[in-house]
Amino acid sequence: MLGLTGMAQIPAPEPDLAEDYPLEGDAGWRRLKLYDLKAQGTQGPIPNGAGTITLNGETITTRGATAGSGTFGTNNSAGLNSADGLYLQCNTTAPMLPELTLTLPLGMTLGKDHALRVSAKVRVTNGDSNDSALFYIADPSVTPTLDVASTSEVGGWRLTGTTTSLTYRRGASPGSGTTIPSTYASGSLTYTRIIIPGWGNDCIVQLDPTAYDTSPPAYQGRTQSGPAAPTNTATVFADGISSIKVMIGAFNGGSGVGLPKITVEEIEIEVR
């Protein structure tokens, strides 16, 4: 083909969507929500059971509960302040497994082909080998807890002890533990991302000590889908949801001297 100057024109290359828009990259993502949790004033203590907090002027539903041991709000506390952002901490060494869930609106309803990305700046402090911390996201129809059924649409991670073990989890189904630097559980900032792929039923889980967009992140795993065998239906995690649940946990297994604590300074929610 000749152009106006008589020279042959070279066709433009076809775009490669997989290369130009990798799921872990930043291209194509659109921010739905950004919560600076250190800028929301002092709120709390968040109660056991149903409650509310205010984020960016929106009323956010909370749920205080435990994963079986102790009582939420007894010997543990949760709330918001300018130093920590969102916090959940054990105040004694008594055995307890408190969990706090926020239901965060998306401002739109997602379809099967939408991918969702939840990013958070998190600090975990484990005082001894009996302590651990959780960070999960879940479909709004799920009541997340440490050992919620692995067939549920839920995914995240757990950091255990001071010689820190990282496990990626789909509720009651954990991966094998990976030993990571103790700084991840001694109060240092961790950048974590959980990505739900379009048409997917699982999560990509990332943790890094320096940035969200480190490529590759220091640690990356996958929760895998709940059903182990092939199915005759295609359940899609993000299909039809207009909110997402974020759950944190600060667990004291008893004995020792540790007072475990988890704080969240920022949550960003994006869609593509």
In short:
The chain is mostly beta strands and 272 residues long. The chain has one helix spanning 17-20; strands at residues 30-36, 49-55, 58-66, 76-81, 85-90, 98-105, 116-125, 131-138, 154-160, 165-170, 173-174, 178-179, 186-196, 204-208, 219-222, 243-252, 261-271.
How does this structure look, described?
With 272 residues, the chain is an all-beta fold. It has one domain: Jelly Rolls, CATH 2.60.120.200. Helix content is 1%, strand content 44%. It is built from one helix and 17 strands. The strands form two sheets. Strands 2, 3, 6, 8, 9, 10, 11, 12 and 16 form a nine-stranded antiparallel β-sheet that branches. Strand 4 and strand 5 form a beta hairpin. The chain is globular, with a radius of gyration of 20 Å. The protein starts with 16 loop residues before the first helix and ends with a strand. The mean pLDDT is 91.
What's the SSE blueprint?
Layout: H1 17-20, E1 30-36, E2 49-55, E3 58-66, E4 76-81, E5 85-90, E6 98-105, E7 116-125, E8 131-138, E9 154-160, E10 165-170, E11 173-174, E12 178-179, E13 186-196, E14 204-208, E15 219-222, E16 243-252, E17 261-271
Antiparallel strand pairs: 1-17, 2-3, 3-6, 4-5, 5-17, 6-16, 7-13, 7-17, 8-9, 8-16, 9-10, 10-11, 10-12, 13-14, 14-15
Task: Give the second-level CATH assignment, the architecture.
Answer: Sandwich
CATH topology label: Jelly Rolls
Distance between the termini: 37 Å
Beta strand count: 17
Broad structural category: mainly beta
**SSE order:** HEEEEEEEEEEEEEEEEE
- Poorly predicted residue ranges: none
The coarse silhouette is: globular
Query: Helical stretch count?
Result: 1
Residues in helices, as a percent range: under 10%
Average predicted confidence as pLDDT: 91
> How many discrete structural domains?
1
How much is the radius of gyration in Å? Answer: 20 Å
The portion of residues forming beta strands comes to 35-45%
Assigned CATH class? Mainly Beta
How many strands, what sense, and barrel or not for the largest sheet?
9 strands, antiparallel
